[in-house]
């Protein structure tokens, strides 16, 4: 992955170092295993490990007996080796987390945002949250950067938010530049649903390869993981699942069309019929499963967190899981932190190949 102005990767000097660091994170615990997995010589692996230990990213601790030969030294990722901030700009709240190198949250805060908030309000609130967390928790040279998840349409490549849905006044906002200039840190900006899928992929590990994180908040969207990679599409616009048509003569939608999943779902929520609302989502999710052949569906967002049982059973009823077509439907374990955590992990992820 490359960014025209991304995170400073001074922590990791070569591609092979990031490969080895990623394998240690995923559980490869000895130099012998690392040499087998990478095809590098034992000497090369030892050199890389020495560099990662000196950089404070990997530690040696304990040994494992392997029968013949001397016990093998075990390697682990050092949690405090690097940190990143993750930010969720929601429609009424700014949520900020600080995560360590393992992706675990070590500090969190949230600030209410009043209706019609401007980019300047977000930058001010973010600066305040970051400085209070940074002072108390982490040294600046261990800080990799800031990841921000926000509603699209936006361009992931340059961090410009074009016309964030539901955020009036947000037109062609160079959010990455604004925040980077204010904080003096590298910044990445991505769609809220994309970083949500980053967070689930980090938590679930390599077996989580073809998946959708369905986000049901003020709007409805989906983050897509296809063949192990976040799918952003040609213009960072993929995953506008809420604005696919489910009813040709359906209700008007905020996007200007009619009968979108989001609009039909909203009407049913407003009528107080939650099972019927969940059923709309279930039908639409099954279309997604058919279209993309995904094996995991993770439900998330405020509406789901308020009534997880209703959404789980509504979606599971429409997404049958057979022996030959297993589809796991679950609710995110990261709760309201999901987007902020994923945004931080987007930044940390650049250290790992
Ligand atoms: Zn729509």
UniProtKB/TrEMBL annotation:
GO MF, one term, reads: DNA-binding transcription factor activity
Against PROSITE patterns, the record matches this protein to:
ROK
Q: Which domain of life is it from?
A: Bacteria
Recorded hits in SUPFAM superfamilies, A to Z, give: Actin-like ATPase domain, Winged helix' DNA-binding domain
InterPro entries from the UniProt entry: ATPase_NBD, HTH_MarR-typ, ROK, ROK_cs, WH-like_DNA-bd_sf, WH_DNA-bd_sf
* Residues of the HTH marR-type domain: 19-59
Family according to the record: Belongs to the ROK (NagC/XylR) family.
Q: PANTHER family in the record, alphabetically?
A: GLUCOKINASE (PTHR18964:SF173), ROK (REPRESSOR, ORF, KINASE) FAMILY (PTHR18964)
Name under which the protein is recorded? ROK family transcriptional regulator
The major lineage groups are: Bacteria, Bacillati, Actinomycetota, Actinomycetes, Pseudonocardiales
């Amino acid at each position: 992955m490359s960014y025209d102005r991304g995170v400073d990767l001074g922590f990791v000097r070569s591609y092979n170092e990031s490969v080895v660091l990623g394998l240690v994170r995923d559980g490869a615990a000895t130099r012998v295993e690392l040499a087998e997995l990478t095809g590098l010589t034992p000497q090369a692996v030892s050199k890389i490990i020495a560099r990662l230990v000196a950089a404070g990213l990997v530690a040696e601790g304990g040994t494992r007996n392997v029968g013949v030969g001397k016990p093998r030294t075990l390697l682990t990722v050092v949690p405090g080796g690097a940190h990143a901030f993750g930010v969720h700009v929601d429609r009424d709240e700014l949520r900020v987390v600080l995560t360590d190198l393992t992706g675990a949250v070590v500090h969190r805060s949230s600030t209410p945002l009043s209706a019609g908030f401007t980019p300047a309000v977000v930058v001010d609130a973010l600066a305040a949250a970051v400085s209070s967390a940074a002072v108390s928790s982490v040294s600046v040279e261990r800080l990799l950067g800031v990841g921000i998840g926000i509603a699209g349409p936006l361009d992931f490549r340059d961090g410009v938010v074009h016309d964030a849905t539901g955020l009036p006044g947000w037109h062609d906002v160079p959010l990455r530049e604004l925040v980077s200039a204010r904080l003096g840190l590298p910044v990445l900006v991505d769609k809220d649903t994309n970083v949500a899928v980053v967070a689930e992929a980090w938590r679930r590990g390599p077996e989580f390869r073809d998946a959708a994180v369905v986000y049901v908040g003020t709007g409805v969207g989906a983050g897509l993981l296809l063949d192990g990679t976040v799918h952003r599409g040609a213009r960072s616009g993929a995953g506008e699942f809420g604005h696919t048509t489910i009813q040709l003569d359906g209700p008007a939608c905020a996007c200007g069309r009619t009968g979108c999943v989001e609009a039909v779902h909203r009407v049913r929520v407003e009528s107080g019929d939650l099972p019927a609302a969940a059923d709309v989502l279930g039908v639409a999710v099954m279309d997604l499963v058919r279209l993309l052949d995904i094996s995991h569906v993770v439900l998330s967002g405020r509406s789901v967190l308020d009534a997880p049982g209703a959404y789980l059973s509504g979606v599971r009823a429409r997404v049958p899981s057979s022996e030959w077509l297993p589809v796991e439907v679950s609710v995110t374990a990261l709760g309201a932190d999901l987007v902020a955590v994923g945004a931080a992990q987007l930044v940390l992820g650049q250290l790992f190949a």
